[in-house]
Amino acid sequence: MKFSLEFNPSNYTVQTLTIDSQTITYRAFENNVYVENPVDTKYQIMNIYVPEAYYEGKTIGSYTASTAPIFMPNTVGGYMPGAPEKPGKHPWHGGVNAAFAALLKGYVVAAPGVRGRVTQDEKGVYTGKAPACIVDLKAAVRYLRYNRKAIPGDTEKIISNGTSAGGALSSLLGVTGNNADYEPYLRELGAAYERDDIFAASCYCPITNLDNADIAYEWMYNGLNDYTKVVLETVTGEKFIPGITPPEQIRRVFVSDTMTEEQIKVSNKLKGLFPSYLNSLGLKKADGTELTLDANGNGSFKDYVKSFVIASAQKALDSDADLYEFDWITIKDGIVKDIDFDKYVQYATRMKPATAFDGLNLDTPENDLFGTKDIKAQHFTQFAKEHSTAQGSLADASIVKLLNPMNYIGREGTSTARYWRIRHGAIDRDTSLAIPVILAAKLANNGFDVNLEMPWGQGHGGDYDLEELFAWIKKICIS
Questions:
Q1: Which of the 8 DSSP states describes residue 274?
Q2: d(CA 36, CA 314)
Q3: What pLDDT, on a 0 to 100 scale, did the predictor assign at position 237?
Q4: How far apart are CA 181 and CA 400, in angstroms?
């Protein structure tokens, strides 16, 4: 069945929602299929929400129906399918979610659904393996631009937002605007013939740069052999089924273990591979200092990563946090002078055994992501392929490339978002701190405006600082 790309402005309901004494009335245009030839109409849809005040000729703050930025949140986690976000409470931290907060601030919300690694059709064929997730987001952006005259909001001020794998997709969407590599996939779906670049990207703990994530993880956590991983279970005791169990029925259980001798050997090998990769990037600080590592993994890049942790500790100290209990933090006259990085890592603890991302027995979400329409999971690094305990096949390099934003920053024929906000919790162990720092440095080195922080005491998660997020958005939109 072929779907129309024309947005129907009369197909809506007026809804009023009150959370924590905050009320917003808005028009809800839900379940808009954003491609002509969808393969999954459960996820290839977009919900669009517009403050009712705009239809009454009113303004919200300095925004009108034509000037309001368009906030585009995705709900992807673990590279699973993500349903379109609806205004309400956040499923994890219990506060308001980003869609609700955005409407209160006067933004138009365009929340696309996205296929994920477990989506299948009625014949059991996988329909959401890479690069489906980023292709869907691009198609959603094109749909908005195609309907710019019918949908309120400024399509030149689209701001994406996501957490974890969703943060990675937000970064990928921001980096790869209009790049021809994605065109065949967009054409196959019948995406609109429009641009897919965006104005800004908000990325919480982005699980990205996957083909180098294992070596970055062991650069940081090598030597820590104990780990505590997160296992998802249902609150009812029923079997947890990825992509099926509703978020409100999921709980996180922490399971501790120790790496095997073989995993420790793998960790040692992977750690040794990271310096050459890092040095090949040619990254620099704002003052021109080269960011490098020696063969042991020490050097200016490590000091640079540490500087973000120091800044985080200082911000916490300025907010009256008691940091004097930590003997690895040096504080003098209210100023955080230094931290012992190795002791800090021990404090943060390891979460994943080696290999953290490209599992040698094909057991990670990322292995699942790089499967094919009829292969559930594949390796995506040469190291894991060579050390595979599952005789797994290797994903096509051209597909792996499409999921790594590092391949597109500064690339000719690509329109990259001008503004970036990256947040990675100071005790978030889902990926190495090196990963967001590398992304931010590469962006900054290519002239983009980057705001990177590592909030103190924050683990893996997102949308925990919505007031700060929307203050940042307001600032960049009026600059």
A1: H
A2: 51
A3: 65
A4: 12
Lowest mean pLDDT among 83-92, 307-316, 317-326: 83-92
C-alpha span between 201 and 137 (Å, rounded): 13
- CA angle 250-253-258, nearest 5°? 145
Angle, vertex CA 405, rays to CA 212 and CA 231, nearest 5:
55
The predicted-structure confidence for 329-371, as pLDDT tens digits, reads as follows 999 999 999 999 999 999 999 999 999 999 999 999 999 999 9
Strands 154-163 and 108-112: unpaired
Three-state secondary structure call for residue 364: coil
Distances, alpha carbon 475 to alpha carbons 62, 69, 224, 467, 468, in Å: 12, 12, 41, 12, 11
Give me the numbers of helices (H) and strands (E) for the chain, helices first please: 13, 13
Mean pLDDT of 156-170: 98
CB 281 within 8 A of CB 304: no
φ, ψ for residue 45, nearest 5 deg? -135, 160
In angstroms, rounded to a whole number, what is the distance separating the alpha carbons of residues 185 and 91? 32
Centre a 10 Å sphere on the Cβ of residue 396 and count the other Cβ atoms it contains: 14
Give the helix/strand (H/E) hosting 5.
Answer: none
Which residues, other chains included, contact 127 with Cβ-Cβ below 8 Å and sequence gap of 6+? 39, 40, 115, 119, 120, 121, 373
Q: Is the model more confident about 478 or about 43? A: 43
Label the pairing between strands 419-423 and 200-204: parallel
Are 355 and 390 in contact, with CB atoms under 8 Å apart?
A: no
The C-alpha atoms of residue 469 and residue 439 are separated, in whole angstroms, by: 19
How far apart (Å, rounded) are the C-alpha atoms in residues 206 and 436? 7
pTM, whole model, 2 decimals?
Answer: 0.95
CA dist list (Å): 328 to 301, 323, 331: 20, 10, 10
Q: Transcribe 36-71 into DSSP letters.
A: SS-S-TTTSEEEEEEEGGGGGT--BTTB-TTT-EEE
The count of other CB atoms within 10 Å of the CB of residue 155 is 21
User: How far is residue 337's CA from residue 313's CA, in Å, rounded to a whole number?
Assistant: 10
- The rounded distance, in Å, linking the Cα atoms of 65 and 260 is 59
Q: How many CB atoms within 10 Å of residue 441? A: 22
* β-strand partners of 257: 227
User: DSSP of 279-336, one letter per residue?
Assistant: HHT--B-TTS-B----TTS-SHHHHHHHHHHHHHHHHHHHTT---TT-TTEEEETTEE
Residue 344 three-state SS: helix
Q: Is 134 left (phi over 0), alpha (psi -120 to 50) or beta?
A: alpha
